[in-house]
Design brief:
The chain is mostly helical and 172 residues long. It has seven helices and three strands; from the N terminus they run αααβααββαα.
Length: 172
């Protein structure tokens, strides 16, 4: 078995172990790495989206609509639930995307009181291009993980994420 190259988390864990031997800092070995990976991913996502004149939150809304399938529309409430944001945040995001002609609001055909947020042709084209750029970045990030480990890696992460998301509430 080969020894992995030490990283910043190894140094942090060693320092805490030295300073606080009374504490079990083992969770840091995993969660500090996830935090650091998330920071790197956020920076890379921002770079990929910037080339398409998109903010990450804009991509998130547009991609939710795109994934919904034809006619690429959802209620604001469905978007709030999927994106874990408050009503006010969602309204602001829809307004801003509508100003850019990337989404439109239309009355619901089944409920006169409801509104649907629909992806425009420009929005669909833009999110498709940004998705391709994102996937290239994500492949680069995961390049050091052998293909044979990807399924297990995803499964392990799912086992941590599912309980967290089952109790998640929208953020402000």
């Amino acid at each position: 078995m080969t020894t992995a190259t030490p990283d910043e988390v190894d140094r942090i864990v060693a320092a805490w172990t030295q300073e606080r031997p009374d504490l079990d800092v083992a969770p840091m070995r995993i969660l500090s790495r996830i935090t650091r990976i998330a920071r790197h991913l956020d920076l890379k996502r921002r770079e990929a989206f910037a080339t398409h004149n998109l903010e990450p939150w804009e991509f998130d809304v547009l991609s939710s609509l795109r994934r919904s399938g034809p006619p690429y529309s959802l209620t604001p409430g469905a978007l709030m639930t999927e994106l874990l944001v408050s009503s006010g945040t969602m309204t602001n995001r829809i307004d801003r995307l509508e100003q850019r002609s990337l989404v439109s609001r239309t009355p619901s055909p089944v409920d006169r009181r409801a509104v649907l947020v629909a992806l425009t042709d420009d929005g669909k084209m833009l999110v498709d291009q940004a998705l391709q750029a994102l996937l290239e970045v994500e492949r680069e990030i995961l390049a050091s993980v052998p293909d044979s480990d990807m399924t297990d890696f995803a499964s392990l992460l799912r086992s941590v994420l599912v309980p967290l998301e089952s109790t998640a509430t929208p953020s402000k």
